[in-house]
Amino acid sequence: MSLLHQEPEEEIDDAARGEELTKGSSHVVLAGIVATVVVVIVVAVYVLTGEKPPVASGEIVQVWAHPSRVETSGFDANGEAMAKQSFDQVLLFAHIKVRNQSKVPLFLEDVLVNFRLPDGGLSVSQGDAAQYQEVLLAYPELTALRGNPLAPRTMLAPGESLDGIAFWIFRANKQQWDTRTDWKQDSSRRDPGSKFGLNFTFSFQYQHSLVLAPHTPVIEQ
């Protein structure tokens, strides 16, 4: 092509317009991406910071522990003889009250009991209502702990409260259970600490967990 060759003015204008339209479209796309990122950040900050006051409040009214030694029957599911086995376990019960003090429904996913032994910390998920009833049948001496079982997965409407008995079971002997240690409050982790060797974490979907500590010693049954 000759250096003296010139494009018609109309073709130049069309090319310029196309370039401007392309630039304009890219600006719109970029603006959309930025807006989306901003919305995501705002939502994340809202979820992480939570509401003030906290979305839920509660109280650990009382805690009971029942260390026990279990021996299997010596028969399998088909009635065939097998070697007997024995192991130690701790049955833990807590009378719990929890209230949704937010303006939105809360889904309680789990309730964990947390305690620390000399060889490390341990968190155990709550048992379900069926296990709770089975334990009360197997241990008649614990019938005084019969009450309204606290369901581990529950929806709480705004202003709604839960009041019931939560149950946990875990492998440990009495000596191990008695060596659990207290710990100090850690506000950065929303941990109220423990004056009696254990506390409880209430896990809510899309919200900060609520951690509660008992205010009275654990009663051994």
Please give a structural write-up:
The chain is of the alpha+beta class and 221 residues long. It has helices spanning 9-49, 129-138, 174-178; strands at residues 56-71, 86-100, 106-117, 120-125, 154-156, 161-170, 198-204, 210-212, 219-220. The chain has two domains: 1-49; 56-220, no CATH class. Strands 3, 4, 5, 7 and 8 form a five-stranded antiparallel beta sheet that branches. Strands 6-2-1-9 form a four-stranded mixed beta sheet.
Q: What order do the helices and strands come in, and which of them pair?
A:
Elements: H1 9-49, E1 56-71, E2 86-100, E3 106-117, E4 120-125, H2 129-138, E5 154-156, E6 161-170, H3 174-178, E7 198-204, E8 210-212, E9 219-220
Parallel strand pairs: 1-9
Antiparallel strand pairs: 1-2, 2-6, 3-4, 3-5, 3-7, 7-8
